[in-house]
Amino acid sequence: MDFSFQKKQRVYLINHGKVLYTMYASTGTGKNNTPTGTYHIQAKRGLSFFNAKSGEGARYWVSWKNHGEYLFHSVPVNRQGQYLINEAHNLGKTANSHGCVRLSVPDAKWMYQNIKQGTKVVITNH
Questions:
Q1: pLDDT higher than 90, residue 88
Q2: How much is the pTM?
Q3: Distances (CA, A) of 91 to 34, 43, 53, 77, 84
Q4: Burial degree of 32 (CB within 10 A; 0-12, 13-18, 19+)
Q5: CA 28 → CA 13, 43, 76, 98, distances in Å?
Q6: What is the spatial distance between Cα 65 and Cα 43, in angstroms, rounded to a whole number?
Q7: Tens digits of per-residue pLDDT, 26-41?
């Protein structure tokens, strides 16, 4: 089960009540808050995407709400596919996404490769 605390900007990988791993994250802010509630990992996932409207993309994405709208993914990349280092510095400190849950590149890659469809995702403001 994934358990994400927005206020703390952390994602906790939990199994039978025991925290197995903690990931630094950056969630949505302002009018783009990350939705709270209980969801499940969906089948949609991919190696990369680019959103021309926001001018950002990311790698290693996994959908957890609305089949591709809300994702776990890496820190953003620019049009050239380069990671935005200043955004990486926000992980674990500041909510700064458009609603998705941003993770470090290794954590996003692990999620992409290992998290199973149907895994419970609980997002709170605590």
A1: yes
A2: 0.92
A3: 15, 26, 23, 14, 12
A4: middle
A5: 20, 22, 13, 5
A6: 10
A7: 999 888 999 999 999 9
User: Which residue reads 């994602």 in tokens?
Assistant: 11
Of the candidates 22, 26, 16, 116, the residue with the CA atom closest to the CA atom of residue 74: 26
Q: Which residues are catalytic?
A: 73, 100
List, in order of start, the domains of the chain with CATH numbers. Answer: 2-124 (2.40.440.10)
Token pair in block for residue 107: 């954590």
CB 120 within 8 A of CB 2: yes
Exposed/middle/buried for residue 70 (C-beta within 10 Å: 0-12, 13-18, 19+): buried
Token digits of residue 80: 């050239």
What the block records as the tokens of 106 is: 């290794």
